[in-house]
Amino acid sequence: RSAHVIVVGGGFGGATAARYLKRGDPSLKVTLIEPATTFYTCPFSNLYLAGLRRFEQQGHGFEDLRAAGIEVIHDRATAVDSQAKTLSLSKGQTLSYDKLLLSPGIDFRWNTLEGYDEAAALLAPHAWKAGEQTRLLKRQLDAMPNGGTFIMVAPENPFRCPPGPYERASMVAHYFKQNKPKSKILILDAKDSFSKQGLFQDGWKHVYGDMIEWVPFSKDGKVTRVDAAKLSVETEFGEIHKADVLNVIPPQKAGTIAEQAGVTNASGWVPIDPHTFESEQVKDIYVVGDATIASPMPKSGFSANTQAKLAAAAIINALNGKPVPQATLSNTCYSLIAPDYGISVGHLYAFADDKLAEASGGVSPKEASPAFRKQEAQYGEAWYAAISRDIWG
Ligand code: FAD
């Protein structure tokens, strides 16, 4: 019998893993479990908010993965029995695996931020998983009057996509500048610093003047209570801010199936062996992407994609009695400040004292010509096209 590898999650990490498992060893039986028939990406969803992309351009189907010989089941995994090595699905099916790979992304810690639960997210969307939430936020921005205030509540580390909130502020600013120029953006942040901060702040001043205000933790930026019905938030020191559109990015944790499988620790995230991305806690379960503790790699689609390739190779080697593969991991995060104004941060990650460490890399130069910023915007677009094709075909 050929070995059976089950992959849970058809997003950046899971769909990559399924493809590279089958490509690396065509004799493997590979099953991919994903409830959605079309996966909508968070990457470039901020451009949709800006009016620079159609929502449909964010969607990717699973036909090409099926054509590659992967069985795709559109259902939700509900339980893992790591002793019996079985996975249960919501519609009642139970599947046996030799190796299980989880890439379930994030779930939210509802109510950790007082007043912010699933019902509140229907009034004050997070839009931190792409789909209906993204469309809701776009509709609210479209309906907002000129001169309104968009408030974003940004979370503490770690969270999905460190530069994401600040790219979102940029893209909303672009939309306002074109359509509602008297409007304001207020970012209330639970942190004192953020990814590519200098580049973002220079870009904001240059392109948007004083439209975007960022309030760090130390200036009472930390929101402690949300009143979604009133679209208002309260900070640590009791200040109340009232929004016309309120975007709350809440605290996060690994997707709940990881918790259920017993691979998360007290932090809510998944400790892994970075050489293989096998769980430190449960044998034969591999975890990649946002759910993992893979610091210093950020929680990005690019990271999930490279981690999945390493985990696929590690699974194939383990099943064939071969040694752990030697790998260097990488990540680049492009962000758009305006349509012709891109910035990036990229690193290679290698092993130092058996731990993942930044080997080389850096951020875009502080001083750069408009032509350079435009080129980075184009690299970002090419990155999206290339990685989407690599993953979903
Ligand atoms: P996902 O891609 O979220 O995939 C998880 C999948 O698992 C989902 O499809 C879900 O349905 C499925 N799933 C969960 N639980 C189960 C279950 N029990 N059973 C079956 N299926 C399940 N990254 C970049 O690299 N570049 C960017 O420009 C970028 N921009 C971003 C912008 C925004 C606004 C946001 C929010 C994120 C951005 N990211 C970006 C980050 C990127 O979206 C994530 O890092 C990436 O999606 C992580 O991949 P993943 O496989 O861990 O999770």
Please describe what this structure looks like.
The chain is α/β, with parallel strands linked by helices. The protein has nine helices and 25 strands. A five-stranded parallel β-sheet has the order 5-2-1-9-21, covered by helices on one side. A hairpin with a 4-residue loop joins strand 15 and strand 16 (240-242). The longest helix is centred in the last third of the chain and has 23 residues, at 370-392. The protein is globular. The chain starts with a strand and ends with a helix. The model has no long low-confidence stretch (mean pLDDT 98). Residues 8-14, 33-36, 39, 42-43, 45-46, 76-77, 103-105, 128, 160-161, 164, 168, 255, 257, 289-291, 299-302, 304, 333-334 line the site of flavin-adenine dinucleotide (FAD).
What keyword list fits this structure?
9 helices, five-stranded parallel β-sheet, alpha/beta, binds flavin-adenine dinucleotide, 393 residues, 28% helix, four-stranded parallel β-sheet, globular
